[in-house]
Amino acid sequence: MKLQRRALVWMAIGCLAFSSSEAREAKEHDRDVNYDEARLPHYDLPPVLVTAQGKKVTTAEEWFSVRRPEILSLFSNLIYGRVPAPAYPIETSFEVVKTDPEFMEGKATRKDVKIRFRNEKGEISMHFLVFVPNGVDKPVPAFLKHSFNNTQSKDFDASEIRPGLLKNGWPLGEFFDRGYGFCAVYQQDLVRHNEVEFLKGIHKLFYPEKQSFPKAHEWGVLATCAWGAMRAMDYLETDDDVDHTRIAIMGHSKMGKAALWTAAQDQRIALAISAQSGCAGAALWRRKSGETLKKMVTRFPYWLSRNAWKFVEQEDDLPVDQHMLLACIAPRPVYVHSGVDDTWADGRGEYLSAYHASEVYKLLGKKGLSSEKSPEVGVPIIKSDVGYHIREGGHSIEMYDWQRFLDFADYHFKP
Ligand code: GCU
To answer: From the CB of 279, is ligand 1 less than 6 Å away?
Structure first.
């Protein structure tokens, strides 16, 4: 009886603690946050097709040789942070440590790949998961996901699946049925995402003896994740089961931000999907709707470079905005996904970014978004080089979203 009472007391304390931390989170989200279109600041976006010297960009050649490198350098140095040149050469190796040709009752083959980085400063490895459907013509197109979930966890164990669906919600059955492979890198293999452990990872391999912390213009967490995905891409170029010319990168939320930064830099990636990437992803900084730069660097100081801190409440001083990030992916197709209730990620700002990036797609002879007005909820734009959908509901990837991503990939990969 006594024990029961004590358990009840602990449960009550637990519930209170939980609801107060939820309440704290909600408060944190809402304090000084604007969600009202009528209260947006006035802003002018930096022109994507005018060089730093003020010259209008009118040809693909000028875009690729002058303006795109200029924009990438601004994003590197001021937003995400530049990957430093390693002080000692890093040796990279790939090892397929396990192959399971009977994954999902023989529907697919699963490979567990270890990507190792080594130099005299130490060794660190990244676990890379690769699934390819069986019984189809290989090599297959594939999605490369920046994953929140640890790729070594049981969530990826075939014994944990409902038909076609992994425990963590990935609809792998759908991918295999549609002829796609699915690969995943785990966000924390190379870099921890909290301030205390931030540097316990790949960073130390890059720094000279006297450096232990990134310089103001050097990589934050998202840039490190992007670097990791590029190394996974290096592996994919060696895997005959996967068509490395048809890789679609994707990620949700924080990982959507990393996915866009990966695709912007790495032209080997054929297509990019941003699932509710929001602030520092597809959403425009200058709208300051939902999450802002200030909120981001206060709550997550190392996701971006320290240089980005300087623009808090000075967004108008930024020489870039996020439409220019999407533009760097052109002419490769890009798809942006928002949720009506995901106001923290500013769905309208995500759409506008895609819309304004379309200027570059058009310059390169591709089809962009033609209307500044966001499409109706549940009406996806698929047959375009800049795709988009917004659906009812909040911050998640639903089956409906996965299917639209695959439709967009089908449209481009299987004409
Ligand atoms: C927080 C953060 C967002 C991020 C999200 C997520 O809400 O503020 O920027 O996208 O976490 O990763 O789920």
So the answer is: yes
